């Protein structure tokens, strides 16, 4: 009874306090931990909040979050791909892929500056030398990818973009001495065969097929395979933000491209051509850059909330839809070889995802399927007998 009276004493019942009292008979400790909402300042957002385009997704339930993220990815990236192909469909624009990249980098730098002004911490954390390397790789990735559209069909370019695993695995073997399992090797083989088949189909049905486009998009893939590792290491090491990364990498890349176009005398013809078609070039380029900037925000939110497995599945579906819309909206020759080679690449992507998540994805073995079918037959025979 005396212990119960002590436990119910007013010193221990006050919330949010920590009392330590010593008496001759006993000592007792009362600890009250404040809730998360009480401990955090109302001016500071929760670390679990996921904000995309000013919208806090953490206020919604999981199905609503998934619907919003998937809708954003599909909407913005489908418009992005449509505008990219639409720009290159303008007669006479195909030689100016590097100038389009210059304009795109300029818009991305402006968007990154605006976003950086909206956050409290505006300091640059990542060293300038690192940004110079990242900017160079970004120029290679996006510049070569945009320029390749002057030589390749858009579906062929998208298929190549799906196969970033191949240069990553080659670099891992020769640079880091990595060893890969059977599933990884099978994924790379499926992607390689799908690429070869798709490229052969493109060269057969496209009268203006040029091997230069294949070389350009392959180099863009190699740069894209490297840049992800460099960006991730820099952001983790120096705790840099996404807006900081966008602002400095694209602004430095803008200077690189501007210098290169000036030295090669490629700036003046591009400016002259675009000034004659301002809506089809600068207008579409603005929307093209804006949708790409918004699209990556939803992809990052999808990864943070649901993980990379689901994000890869959604983005793969988006790329498949981009290929279908490309054939629907833009006149180009078609053959069933595109379908089979595309499905082979999709199989390679699935095997790659499965290899990284083998502990989460349990595929039934052939032996297990056979035993299950035998048991079903026995039960069926028994029921018929009864």
From TrEMBL:
Membrane topology: Multi-pass membrane protein
Molecular function, one GO term: 3'-phosphoadenosine 5'-phosphosulfate transmembrane transporter activity
Organism: Quiscalus mexicanus (Great-tailed grackle)
Key words, A-Z: Membrane, Transmembrane, Transmembrane helix, Transport
Range of residues in the leader sequence: none
Transmembrane spans: 66-84, 96-119, 131-152, 158-175, 182-200, 206-227, 247-270, 282-302, 309-331, 337-354
Stated family: Belongs to the nucleotide-sugar transporter family. SLC35B subfamily.
Compartments, record wording: Membrane
Any one of the GO CC terms: endoplasmic reticulum membrane
Keyword Transmembrane among record annotations: yes
InterPro entries: SCL35B1-4/HUT1 (IPR013657)
Protein name, as recorded: Adenosine 3'-phospho 5'-phosphosulfate transporter 2
UniProt superkingdom: Eukaryota
